[in-house]
Amino acid sequence: xxxxxxxxxxxxxxxxxxxxxxxxxxxxxxxxxxxxxxxxxxxxxxxxxxxxxxxxxxxxxxxxxxxxxxxxxxxxxxxxxxxxxxxxxxxxxxxxxxxxxxxxxxxxxxxxxxxxxxxxxxxxxxxxxxxxxxxxxxxxxxxxxxxxxxxxxxxxxxxxxxxxx
Amino acid sequence: xxxxxxxxxxxxxxxxxxxxxxxxxxxxxxxxxxxxxxxxxxxxxxxxxxxxxxxxxxxxxxxxxxxxxxxxxxxxxxxxxxxxxxxxxxxxxxxxxxxxxxxxxxxxxxxxxxxxxxxxxxxxxxxxxxxxxxxxxxxxxxxxxxxxxxxxxxxxxxxxxxxxxxxxxxxxxxxxxxxxxxxxxxxxxxxxxxxxxxxxxxxxxxxxxxxxxxxxxxxxxxxxxxxxxxxxxxxxxxxxxxxxxxxxxxxxxxxxxxxxxxxxxxxxxxxxxxxxxxxxxxxxxxxx
Lengths: 165, 288
Ligand SMILES: Cc1cc2nc3c(=O)[nH]c(=O)nc-3n(C[C@H](O)[C@H](O)[C@H](O)COP(=O)(O)OP(=O)(O)OC[C@H]3O[C@@H](n4cnc5c(N)ncnc54)[C@H](O)[C@@H]3O)c2cc1C
Ligand code: FES
Ligand code: FES
Description:
The complex is a heterodimer of chains A (about 160) and B (about 290).
Chain A: E1 4-10, E2 13-19, H1 25-32, E3 51-54, E4 57-60, E5 73-75, H2 89-96, H3 106-119, H4 125-131, H5 143-164
Helix pairs in contact in A: 2-5
Chain B: E1 7-9, H1 14-24, E2 28-31, H2 37-42, E3 50-53, E4 63-66, E5 69-73, H3 78-83, H4 85-90, H5 93-98, H6 104-109, H7 112-117, H8 125-131, E6 135-140, E7 143-148, H9 149-152, E8 153-155, E9 158-159, E10 166-173, E11 180-186, E12 196-205, E13 208-217, E14 224-225, H10 227-233, H11 240-252, H12 264-285
């Protein structure tokens, strides 16, 4: 089948590539862009391990064709830490609060949590749980993931308050 | 799981999309959010040779109030329904329902148009649209027409939409101020389709029911508008006797499958339970 040219912004960098229309965004990211942070857990749109940010929305990249991302801004977990390696507040929170065990769900959890905190910078525990309801974790029982997201919310809100003063 | 190969177009105008679909015939399909279509394509159940992506067509987006109705563009996502002040103000049951569909990621991309055009009786929006007596605006090579949600569904995955037609908008008559409403859905977990679900809109006058509309999700080959059950409530105080009469009538029109969500008898009884709960909440919300 003929390949199609796509152009998109990936973690802030302009990329161009040829893809088959049937190429899923997750395969494009992992196999063509060699960004293996987003994971393939279920391939059936349920687990959220493949979650990335597309034009300011959380999406499951196993359920998007790469051609649908033409012209989009895509952010993956590889772009979360600062260029100098300083961890994002969420990454720090997951480390501090033991928000992971095997780590398989973590890239998806981080990317979903990142968008959740943009949408709602001060979420309640219930809002965090509903906010990550499209992300499954087989290890942690979620308790520490919720605490990690709360940790990041507190840290980010404190930083913002300080900046405003 | 990789879908079979297909060709892809993303036209920028409705006319181009309609012309493409007409030219390509039945092996071509519109692509909206892809959250029903892509999972199905991964299973390679049906040969699909061409997708016409609707995402670049601006006229399919947006929500406006016009002539006593909300006109919701087909490409409006479930997340956009949840964020719309117009919908909060005029027809909040749409948001109550959207919030019960899947999870945030699915709602980021899944559209109202795709949900109602899909024809899967498990989708939640079709019964809601029947309850609200919405109309679907369809554009084809011969022009545009409107089909009522209550007339649209023929059997599972078969609808009144012709192959070459694109659903452009859903027109929802704005329910009267003070209407009571509820969507009750039983599901096994987040991201599951309904075991049974019921949509209810009622209006009251002087303590008695003036109008009532009931529709059911995933309890037959199509969404089910419960016309007799709805009529049975009108003129009653929505007391226990009236509610039980409506529940019996509504249960009577269900014909659910026995599957992983439970045996048919159970699902029929759950339809009744969902309807009782929905009526109770609708009554508590209704003014008059
Ligand atoms: C994990 C998961 C859980 C889900 N749970 C639920 C749930 O509980 N309840 C629920 O209702 N849905 C659920 N869905 C489905 C989801 O809401 C879909 O997004 C929706 O059913 C279809 O919308 P779409 O925009 O993704 O359409 P698509 O998948 O793009 O299209 C669906 C069908 O409609 C046709 N179509 C789409 N738009 C148009 C148009 N404008 N004109 C003509 N034809 C069109 C397509 O050709 C296709 O046949 C779930 C999906 C997933 C992945
Ligand atoms: S791999 Fe995409 S949701 Fe599981
Ligand atoms: S840490 Fe193992 S799946 Fe979440």
